[in-house]
Amino acid sequence: MTLLEAIILTVITASTPLLIAAIGELVVERSGVLNLGVEGMMIIGAAAGIAAAITTGNSWFGVLIAILAGMALSLVFAALVLGLAANQVAAGLALAILGLGLSGVIGAPFVGVQREGIGKIEIPYLSDIPFIGEILFHQDPFVYASVALTAGVWWFLTRTRAGLVLRACGENHAAAHALGYRVLRIRLLAILFGGGCAGLAGAYLSLVYTPFWTSGMTSGRGWIALAIVVFASWLPWRAAVGAYLFGGLTILQLHAQSAGVPLPSQVMAALPYLLTIIVLVVIMRARRGGAAGPACLGTPFVPDR
Fold first, then answer.
1. What is the DSSP string of 144-199?
2. What 3-state class would DSSP assign to 121?
3. Highest mean pLDDT among 174-183, 187-196, 294-303
4. CA-based end-to-end distance of the chain
5. pTM score, two decimals?
6. Who's near 161: CB < 8 A, 6+ residues apart?
C-alpha cells in the first residue's frame, strides 16, 4: 500500500462519522430547529453501541442500539423545545452535557475491553483494481451508508413533496401551519432522524474506528459536524465536501507530527478546530454577516390554540 493510498483511506475513515452526523443535523436545521447536542448524542451512541455489542456478542445489534440511544436522547430535546417551547440553544447545550455524563456511566464497565470491529465489504474483482479498488470498493458498510445518506437526503429535500414541506417549516412555520401542515410533528420526525444519525456516527467510532470504549472518544466531532452544516450552507453535497475537508485536516496534522514538523503537538492537535473557526468566520464575512440558513432556525413554534 502506497503512502498516498494509506492517507486517503485514513481520511475516509476520519470523515465518515463527521458526514453522518452532519447530514442528520442538516435535516434537523432545515426543519427550523437548532440542536447543539450532537456531541452528546454521538457519545451516547458510542457508549450504548459498544456496551450492547460486547454484552450480546453481536456488533450489528450494537449499531441498532446506538441508533436508538441517539434517538432517545433527541426525544428529550424534542420534549423541551417542541413540547415546552424552551430555548433551543440552552436545551442543546444541556443535551450535550447530559450525553457526556450518561456515556461515562454506561461505558464505565467496558473501558478498554476489546471488541472485534465490523469488517469491510470486499466487492469481487473491483476491489482488486490497483489503488482505486482498495479506496472505492473495499470499505466498511458505514462509508457506503454515509454516501447513501447524503444522496437520499439530497433527493428527499429537493425532489419530494415531503422535503418541500419540511423546508417550508424551516423557512416560515406560521405559513406552513396556516396551510394545514403539522409543524411540530414534522420537526419531531426531523429531530429523531438527526438523533439516529448522531447515534450511528457514535457507533462508527466505537465499533469501527477504534473498536473499544474510552471516555470522551468523540473528541469534539459533534461540534465540528455542526460547523460543517454552516460551512455547507445547509446543502447535503457541500456537507460531504466539508466533512472530507475537516477529516483530511485531522489526518494531515497527525502525519505532520509524525514527519517531525517543528510545532508543539498541542498546537497540531488544535489545528483542525482552529481552521474550523477560521473557515466559519470567512464564510460569515463573505455573506456580510448574514446566514443563508432557514429563516425560522432556532425560533420556537407554538401553534394557535
1. HHHHHHHHHHHHHHHH-HHHHHHHHHHH-HHHHHHTT--HHHHHHHHHHHHHHHHH
2. strand
3. 187-196
4. 65
5. 0.91
6. none
